[in-house]
Structure formats: structure tokens, C-alpha cells
Design a protein that fits this description.
alpha/beta, single chain, 19% strand, binds magnesium ion, 356 residues, ten-stranded mixed sheet, two-stranded antiparallel sheet, globular, Isopropylmalate Dehydrogenase, binds 3-isopropylmalic acid, 12 helices
Length: 356
């Protein structure tokens, strides 16, 4: 089994190093190959997604991704910015189904900014469509405004769109995921304003006929944002488009105390996937050995389960993470009085030690 390791920028290399150590400690024989991506790709080859990196990702059975982005690349033209690496990988690998679970570990109930009773026991799954919507719709750009009160001025524009097949396939993924959980699916849209999302909603209702055992409800995205912080435990599985999913998943992440805890999986139709923490490259704390590696370690666990067919190994990692939290070990982002503050590398080593 071949794993492409793409550490990227900022804290990416530090957290990926810890996840690789955990993988190496499992006693399986993985073939791992590392390649630069994001700003690191730009430095090495003049492009955020170098051809050799893309080739490796296409060949591998799974991709473990750190994070990309740093301030110094913000001035580059869009096509060369680090974010293009992750967007390009999603597109080229057809990773249309993004799983972002938000689970609150009981030990971290105090780390959430919400009251413990609102979040304790939280276990929700956001399924975000990842290769369509306004992120990839054409045309886009800056043009001369064709009419209206601003006629003749420059205007920026993007295209929000979803093809029927795109909505159907993410709907099936979501219903099937809900079926394995509490069988409640909430489709988040903006059907009251947007044609694209009225269409989305209609397709969801149609696909639902194949899953009578799952309850489907619909929520406008603004209300969903409110409900996520008001009563997040009411949700089981949320399915939504690319942009709404981007926004809601950050909000959901914070319910759990730290975005440093949340893994993610981005899958194609055959369960090949890219696994990355839900957080970014955090350039402000890069190189300080204080970042939380648990989201990346848990992403590696998702990789074992979804792409590599090793669910018992995934569980070993997840149990080891629970164990280190139970031991009171905390990186600074989740630190509370009475716990032991540890570094990135100490946390990684503790997870390795806690593997049983
Ligand atoms: C995410 C990120 C990306 C996105 C950025 C880095 C392009 O915010 O994975 O949520 O918007 O999808
Ligand atoms: Mg995001």
C-alpha cells in the first residue's frame, strides 16, 4: 500500500511527521513517499502543485496531506498561490465527497467556547460536496459590468452551479453515511434565494426515495449556522454544497474546543482519498513545536479505515488518542489547568506509546 505524504507549509511538516511516526508504529508495511506541495512546491518547482507531486498523488492508494499557505505567497497571482494545490488535488483526484466529523471528546468539554451541556456528547458529521459549486464554476473573473447602475465599471464575478449528477452522487454518499449512524440527514441549502440550491433540494428529495429508512430534513444555511451554535447535538449528518460546507465546518470545528482536533477525509467514487486536518497551516505558530498533531493523526486513522481497508488499525489509533487525552496531555490549543502541557513531538510520541 502506497501513501503519498504531502506535508506542505507552516505547521504541516511538524504535524505530518507525528502522523507518520504513528503509522510506522502500527507494524504494517506501508510504502511512503514524500513530495512538496503548496508554498513548498512553489519553492522547489515554481508551482504549488508540481507535476511530480500530482503524479505521486494519482499513483498512491491514499494521500496524507498537512496544510498549505503562508503570508509570503499572498502576493502571487492566484494560479500560483498555495491554496491552488489543495483545490487542484481535489479536482484532479475527483475527491467530491468531504467528510468532516465533529466529535467532542469528554475530556475536552471545557475547552469549547460553548457551555459543556450544549456540546458534551457532540458527534456530528458534515459531508461537504468538494469539487463543484461556486468554487469551480465557470465563468469567473473580473469584467466590465454590462448593465445596471454600475454599468461600465469593473466587476468581480463567479458562477454558482451544480450539475444533477454532482448532487445525486453526494446525496447517495450522505444517505449511506446517515444509514450507518443515527439515520438523520439534514440538507443545508439556500433554496429561498438561489436557483442552484432549489435544484439541490429537489434532487435531495428525489434521492431520498431510495432511502426511506433515513429521515431527511432541509435547513437554510443561515438558520443552520444559528442552530449549530444553539443546539448542535440536534444534528446527526449534514450534507451541503462546497461553499456552505466550508463555512459551516469551521463553525462546527470550534464546537469541539479546538480545530486542532478535527480530521477530514476527501473521497472519490472508489474510496481513494486525501486525508488532512480540518485546520490550516497556522504560520504564526509554525516551527515552534506547539501545534496540535491530533487532527492529522486522526486523519491517518480515517485513511486506514476508508482507503486502506484497515479498520482495526484505525481504531487502535483512535483509542490511543483517547488515552493520551485521558492521561491529561494537552497541546497549548486545548490546555486547561490541571493538565500537562506538551509539545507537538511529545504528543506524537505519547500517541505511539499509547498504541495497544
Ligand atoms: C478548507 C479550506 C480550503 C477551502 C482553502 C484552503 C482553499 O478552507 O479546506 O476548508 O476553502 O476549501
Ligand atoms: Mg475552510
Amino acid at each position: 500500500m502506497k501513501i503519498a505524504i504531502l506535508p506542505g507549509d507552516g505547521i504541516g511538516p511538524e504535524i505530518v511527521t507525528e502522523a507518520v511516526q504513528v503509522l510506522n508504529a502500527l507494524g504494517e508495511s506501508f510504502e511512503m513517499e514524500t513530495a512538496p506541495v503548496g508554498g513548498a512546491g512553489y519553492e522547489a518547482y515554481g508551482h504549488p502543485l508540481p507535476e511530480s507531486t500530482l503524479k505521486l498523488a494519482l499513483q498512491a492508494d491514499a494521500v496524507l496531506f498537512g496544510a498549505v499557505g503562508a503570508w509570503k505567497y499572498d502576493q502571487l497571482e492566484r494560479a500560483l498561490r498555495p491554496e491552488q494545490a489543495i483545490l487542484g488535488l481535489r479536482k484532479h483526484l475527483n475527491l467530491f465527497a468531504n467528510f468532516r466529523p465533529a466529535i467532542l471528546y469528554p475530556e475536552l468539554a471545557g475547552a469549547s467556547s460553548l457551555k459543556p451541556e450544549v456540546v458534551s456528547g457532540l458527534d456530528l458529521l458534515i459531508i461537504r460536496e468538494l469539487t463543484g459549486d461556486i468554487y469551480f464554476g465557470q465563468p469567473r473573473g473580473v469584467r466590465e459590468c454590462p448593465d445596471g447602475p454600475f454599468k461600465g465599471q469593473r466587476e468581480g464575478f463567479d458562477t454558482m452551479r451544480y450539475a444533477e449528477g454532482e448532487v445525486r452522487r453526494i446525496a447517495h454518499v450522505a444517505f449511506q453515511a446517515a444509514r450507518k449512524r443515527d439515520k438523520r440527514l439534514t440538507s443545508v441549502d439556500k433554496a429561498n434565494v438561489l436557483e442552484t440550491f432549489q435544484f439541490w433540494k429537489d434532487i435531495m428529495i428525489d434521492v431520498h426515495r431510495e432511502y426511506p429508512d433515513v429521515t431527511l430534513d432541509h435547513m437554510y444555511v443561515d438558520n443552520a449556522a444559528m442552530q449549530l451554535v444553539r443546539a448542535p447535538k440536534k444534528f446527526d449528518v449534514i450534507v451541503t454544497g462546497n461553499m456552505f460546507g466550508d463555512i459551516l465546518s469551521d463553525a462546527a470545528a470550534m464546537l469541539t474546543g479546538s480545530i486542532g482536533m478535527l480530521p477530514s477525509a476527501s473521497l472519490d467514487a472508489n474510496n481513494k482519498g486525501l486525508y488532512e486536518p480540518s485546520h490550516g497551516s497556522a504560520p504564526d505558530i509554525a516551527g515552534k513545536n506547539i501545534a496540535n498533531p491530533l487532527a492529522t493523526i486522526l486523519s491517518a486513522a480515517m485513511m486506514l479505515r476508508f482507503s486502506l481497508g484497515l479498520p482495526e488499525q484505525a481504531e487502535r489509533i483512535e483509542n490511543a488518542v483517547k488515552s493520551v487525552l485521558h492521561q491529561g496531555l494537552r497541546t497549548p490549543d486545548i490546555f486547561e489547568d490541571g493538565c500537562r502541557k506538551v509539545s507537538t513531538s511529545e504528543m506524537g510520541a505519547a500517541v505511539v506509546k499509547a498504541l495497544v
